[in-house]
Design a protein that fits this description.
By secondary structure, the protein is an alpha+beta fold. About 25% of the residues lie in helices and about 30% in strands. The chain is globular and about 80 Å long. A 7-stranded mixed β-sheet has the order 1-5-6-10-9-8-7, with helices on both faces. It has helices at about 20-35, 50, 90-100, 140-155, 195-200, 220-225, 240; strands at about 40, 45, 70-75, 80-85, 105-115, 125-135, 160-170, 170-180, 185-195, 210-215. The N and C termini lie far apart (about 45 Å).
């Protein structure tokens, strides 16, 4: 029988490293922490109230169509209604405001789910950072300043950023935030002033407080930072690719 030679060197253990998305999330939290925002968390399985109703999204909106969401046929909310995988991290802002009196300044980072057609910049599971600030005299100028500072802190001070008018049921006015990437503009997320209907739904008085909210695509920021041209590379579990980061 061949014995074990204990004098031979052992097989070295390779140290792991954080996934590039995890690295991005940690840096996002650090940047927003320096801006005075605290981190809040919420469930990934949500009821319609927090995912739609409290966010001023009526039943007739296409965003509530079963074909545009991942409803769970085998589960029900406590009120007997359907539940779904959350389609946005905006659900966390509702939960925070329901339990917290203003002023509020939070970010929520996590996975969201939408049955999008998968391509180089879209995936059916991706990551968002939701930001919310509510208090006295919160303005659109404050929102633009925060987003400008955040994008330039993470992507570099020379990155071109633009704001385009848009529409979201839970913000008014609303904008979309784009960044110039490889000679074309890529959407990074949406933002705007919190709609008075949303403030009313959580028990706030829209005549007393105002607020802004924004939702940014973490995966796309990660792609920009590391010059990744296809979002699918992030989730293929290719160790050769992941070792680069």
């Amino acid at each position: 029988l061949t014995g074990v030679d204990v004098t031979l060197p052992g097989t070295p253990c390779e140290l792991g490293r954080r996934h590039p998305i995890t690295q991005t999330i940690e840096e996002f939290k650090d940047i927003m922490g320096r801006f005075g925002f605290t981190v809040a968390e919420g469930p990934e399985i949500e009821d319609e109230h927090h995912n739609f109703v409290a966010l001023n999204i009526p039943k007739e909106r296409p965003a509530r169509d079963p074909l545009d969401n991942f409803y769970l046929a085998c589960a029900e909310a406590s009120d007997g209604g359907p539940v779904l995988l959350r389609s946005q991290t905006s659900t966390v802002q509702i939960r925070v405001m329901e339990q917290t009196k203003p002023p509020v300044r939070i970010v929520s980072v996590g996975r969201v789910y939408r049955p999008d057609t998968i391509d180089a910049t879209h995936c059916c599971m991706f990551h968002q950072m939701e930001g919310l600030m509510v208090g006295d005299d919160v303005t659109m100028a404050m929102l633009k300043t925060v987003l400008h500072l955040f994008a330039k802190t993470y992507l570099g001070h020379d990155v071109p950023i633009r704001f385009r008018p848009s529409f979201f049921p839970f913000t008014e006015p609303s904008v979309e935030v784009d960044v110039l990437w490889k000679d074309s503009w890529m959407e990074l997320g949406g933002a705007g002033m919190v709609d008075p209907n949303v403030l009313t739904a959580v028990g706030y008085d829209p005549d007393e407080v105002t607020g802004f909210a924004f939702g940014l695509g973490i995966d796309r920021f990660c792609m920009l930072r590391h010059n990744i041209n296809d979002i699918r590379r992030l989730f293929e579990n290719d160790v050769r690719f992941l070792k680069q980061f």
